[in-house]
Amino acid sequence: MTAIEPITAPEVAAPVLATGSGFVVELEAFSGPLDLLLHLLREEQLEIADIPIARIADQFLQAVHELGLNQAADYLDMASRLVRLKVQMLLPRNAEEDGWEDPRAELVRRLLEYQQIREVAVWLGRAAERRAEQFARGYLPPAPALPPPPLTLNLLDLLSAIDRVIASIPSPVLHRVVARPLDVESATRRIEHLLADLEEIRWQDALGSGATIVDVLSTLLALLELAKRGSLRLLQPTPFSPMVIARESPRTAA
Amino acid sequence: MSPLAQLLEAALFSACRPLTAEELATLDSDASPADVRVALEQLREHYDFNQHGVELVEMAGGYQILTRPIHAAAIERAQFTVRAPKLTAATLETLSVIAYRQPVGRLEIEEIRGVSAGGVLRSLQERGLIEVVGRSEALGRPLLYGTTALFLELLGLRDLADLPKAEELTIALQPHPATTDGSDDAAAYVEAES
């Protein structure tokens, strides 16, 4: 059971690896140097416990050679470890020597540990997939409004847009304002003149004939002003009856 | 169904996360924790016995009403909802290490996986699947990570004890791993002998 088990994470595509003339490695297919190492061992049907370090190290370096340098930092670290192991294995040793420790032990331990993690990872992946088959009732926030697309227009578009905006402005309604000044002075004079002769006059008399709206207003203001000054009295004998404009009595008496 | 079971059904229906038995017990001051468990069992049986399209699922320390897997494809086809995206190999491996070794620091994760883990750790933390649970006493007092309730929710696990036991795994850390009985899920995808 120490033989390399073919562990394949479901989302990992089968790595393209052409043995013989050299490796073609799809980096994305491996999640790290340990994964690549396991893959190589699997390809060669080798046992983790007894890795032929020299062979595997060469194959690993060959594989790393195909990888982009910026992506290969983790792989280069492993490569250097393998090369060191290869050298250590080449050192002459006395078979009867008791103190000799297999320099590969650490790597074997790591590979086994990693394999275990891979197995758990596959288990987790399956659990997540099973869970994803069940939907919870849940509030899904509405998708955020997309930002407005960048403005692209040429001068012609801009000008025609300006034309449309201008056309949509309603033409202003112009009022011609003609000054028609009220002539309160002459109205006052006319009333005073009339009251000089007569004890009392009617509104119609004060107004005179052919009165315009301006004359009416002028006369009204003149009457009110004169009444305020006490020059005359405004009387209305009964409701809605014509107004009587009377000369102020005290002055008459005087 | 008992009135309590009906109340629990309404509460579970209204929630969009698993509710714990303790939370559910607050719905009715007269209900004991035992009453709640009985009512939950009643609700589960009700869904199962009457073959409802939903079922009561126990996960992440709580309970939630979920649609049955058999309907997933049709619901997805109609685009009423979307399946959670698959997790990448790097994500799964990192989660595996953290789930079994927690609390665990970045260095140990990188040592086991043989690759730098900063980016994956950050994204897992952003997704709320792992969290900082403390600091190591080691030099520099590095952060220690652990899995969250959301991690259990994502995998549909009741708690961490639902993870396969070390002895259930095909590859154990012993030099001569014991052969598995082949009954567990993990054995299904591993060829027995090469």
Question: What can you see in these coordinates?
Answer:
The complex is a heterodimer of chains A (about 250) and B (about 190). With about 250 residues, chain A is mainly alpha-helical. Helix content of chain A is about 50%, strand content about 5%. Chain A has helices spanning about 35-45, 55-65, 75-90, 105-130, 155-170, 185-195, 205, 215-230, 250-254; strands at about 200, 230-235, 245. Chain A has a 3-stranded antiparallel beta sheet. In chain A, a hairpin with an 8-residue loop joins strand 2 and strand 3. In chain A, helix 1 (about 35-45) packs across helix 4, helix 2 (about 55-65) runs antiparallel to helix 3 (about 75-90) and helix 6 (about 185-195) crosses helix 8. The N and C termini of chain A lie far apart (about 145 Å). With about 190 residues, chain B is α+β, with helices and mostly antiparallel strands. Chain B has 3 domains: about 5-75, Orthogonal Bundle (Arc Repressor Mutant, subunit A), CATH 1.10.10; about 90-165, Orthogonal Bundle (Arc Repressor Mutant, subunit A); about 165-195, no CATH class. Helices cover about 40% and strands about 15% of the residues of chain B. Chain B has helices spanning about 5-15, 20-25, 35-50, 70-75, 90-100, 105-115, 120-125, 150-155; strands at about 55-60, 60-65, 105, 130-135, 145. In chain B, the strands form 2 sheets. A 3-stranded antiparallel beta sheet of chain B has the order 3-5-4. Chain B has a two-stranded antiparallel ribbon with strand order 1-2. In chain B, strand 4 (about 130-135) and strand 5 (about 145) form a beta hairpin. In chain B, helix 1 (about 5-15) packs across helix 3 (about 35-50). Chain B is globular. Residues about 175-194 of chain B have low confidence and may be disordered. At the A-B interface, helix 1, helix 3 and helix 4 of A face strand 1, strand 2, helix 5, helix 6 and helix 8 of B.
